[in-house]
Amino acid sequence: MSSEKKVSSNVVWHHATIDRQRREALNGHKSVILWFTGLSGSGKSTLAHAVEEQLYEMKCRTFVLDGDNIRHGLCGDLGFSDDDRVENIRRIGEVAKLFLEAGVITLTAFISPFRSDRERVRNLVPHGDFLEIYCRCPLEICEERDVKGLYKKARAGEIKAFTGIDSPYEEPLAPELAVDTGSESLEESTAKVIGLLKSRGILN
User: Fold this and answer.
1) What is the pLDDT of residues 83-130, one digit of tens each?
2) Helix (H) or strand (E) holding 186
3) What residues are labeled active site?
4) Which CATH number goes with the domain that contains 90?
5) Helical ranges in 58-185 per DSSP H
6) Which domain holds residue 60?
7) How many domains does the chain have?
């Protein structure tokens, strides 16, 4: 997998007069990246949006970066080869970093199958600003759900390099939170994420 980063030339970082701390003070809460990872069908998007709904009710500034939605625009030129998966997550990491500086609680829902990619995003931001949330769900349950019919196509050989079938998913070794989305209710998983945010001082 290629991990070389092209650097633009003749550019200088412009420091804004309104910084992250002032934006957080205006919002009334700290900003953070909540990185939901797991197999297709594990409930990442469902959980991210449920958490956002609860945060919205708490008057928090939030935004969900969803895997499918991002591939309609920002990453519409990428396929699903290993190199394209790496680039997809690199771009998302940079976008999430900008949202972090904007004082927003950013929720990302991406399979992000490779540990090295998730760690690369973690290393983009200060310690404690990247919270990895592993949506742990057995492959057989994900296949039973098969909301998009992708597993059926992958098993039939119609989709190549599908995560969990013929492309690997590397489970997080030490996520900030693991939720068993295959067995617990959405309400239980959502409560755990909100509890994590409170324990980390993101929410009052």
Assistant:
1) 888 888 888 899 999 999 999 999 999 999 999 999 999 999 999 999
2) helix 186-199
3) 112
4) 3.40.50.300
5) 67-70, 82-101, 115-122, 139-145, 150-155
6) 20-138+171-199
7) 1
